[in-house]
Amino acid sequence: MDLSEQTFGEWVRVRKDGHVAELVMDRRGAMNAVSTAFAGALADACGALARDGEVRATVLTSTHERAFCVGADLKERNSFSDAELAAQRPHARAAYTGVLELPMPTIAAVHGYALGGGYELALACDLIVADPTAVLGLPEVSVGVVPGGGGTQLLPRRVGAARAAELIFTARRVAAEEARALGMVDLLAEAGEDRAEALALAARVAANSPVGLRAAKRALRTGWGMDLRAGLEVEEAAWRTVAFSGDRAEGVAAFNEKRKPDWPGV
């Protein structure tokens, strides 16, 4: 399937440039608030990306000047009955799980507000690039809920259990500089350059073996929470996946012939 420019629903697009895909959130009128329809579109886009063997890295971006994503669409939810809220839950989970389970490395390009479910979308990515305007946090307890897009599990893996508890329990918002110091984001770009920096990073990632990249990501993600012995078995399985692949043969040959590899991707 050609994903060079494809639209999912009303507010989500996927652009492809070579082996790099850009997953674009474009619900500008609501700062990318995650409504039922928006969640469904994100899930559908992630499903298409996961099936695209040509993509080696994906960047999650926003077209809104002042926001990456402000989280759940509370205006929509304000009208929900309990039954309607329960019915929406699988759609929301599918969106966050869709980003989290993308098989290739993923990078979030964050500027402006990334709050609640918006920050959880960034947390679902492997790396987060932010610019100085970024404001991040998980303020769910301030409106009577808890982070439900993976935040209670993903944030401690970034910043540690005690720091994550402080951030979640106080519901406070964190500016970009502090977020970088705490490990809530990985790289700080110049103002307005988060997307360009993330795409450049994705291009560097995508220059590497697609078989190796996906196996390395599986090993990293699967090993979360395991003891060392179990984690090393996960790594062994990843090694066996790539050791007898065409990518490994091409990588070794290219190294010895002092040329760039032409990855077969198998």
Automatic annotation (TrEMBL):
Transmembrane segments: none annotated. GO terms for biological process: fatty acid beta-oxidation. Keywords: Lipid metabolism, Lyase. Coiled coil: none annotated. GO terms for molecular function: enoyl-CoA hydratase activity. It catalyses: a 4-saturated-(3S)-3-hydroxyacyl-CoA = a (3E)-enoyl-CoA + H2O; a (3S)-3-hydroxyacyl-CoA = a (2E)-enoyl-CoA + H2O. It holds the Pfam family ECH_1. It comes from the Bacteria. Its EC number is 4.2.1.17. Belongs to the enoyl-CoA hydratase/isomerase family. This is enoyl-CoA hydratase. It comes from Streptomyces qinglanensis. The lineage of its organism: Bacteria, Bacillati, Actinomycetota, Actinomycetes, Kitasatosporales.
